[in-house]
TrEMBL record:
Gene3D superfamilies cross-referenced by the UniProt entry: 4.10.410.60
Coiled coil location: none
Record-given protein name: Large ribosomal subunit protein bL35
Record NCBIfam families: rpmI_bact
Any one GO biological process: translation
GO CC annotation: cytosolic large ribosomal subunit
Molecular-function GO term, any one: structural constituent of ribosome
InterPro entries attached to this UniProt entry: Ribosomal_bL35 (IPR001706), Ribosomal_bL35-like (IPR021137), Ribosomal_bL35_CS (IPR018265), Ribosomal_bL35_sf (IPR037229)
Lineage: Bacteria, Pseudomonadati, Pseudomonadota, Betaproteobacteria, Burkholderiales
Gene: rpmI
Keywords: Ribonucleoprotein, Ribosomal protein
Family (UniProt): Belongs to the bacterial ribosomal protein bL35 family.
Length: 65
């Protein structure tokens, strides 16, 4: 039986909180920022919770989290 391994890309993108919810960073904030409004960029700051439809797949990628 092979070892269970964490997907390293997932461990870099997601953080499991103490409550069990999963935190992720916002997308669309890396480049081509000149055409995006200041309001849009400001609302992309900070972290948000992973949607409940995606929680199972994220937890499968991180079996030890």
């Amino acid at each position: 039986m092979p070892k269970m391994k964490t997907k390293k890309s997932a461990s870099k993108r997601f953080v499991v909180r103490g409550s069990g919810s999963i935190k992720r960073g916002q997308a669309f904030k890396r480049h081509i920022l000149t055409k995006k409004t200041t309001k849009n960029k400001r609302q992309l700051r900070g972290a948000v919770e992973v949607h409940k439809a995606d929680v199972a797949s994220v937890k499968a990628m991180m079996p030890f989290a």
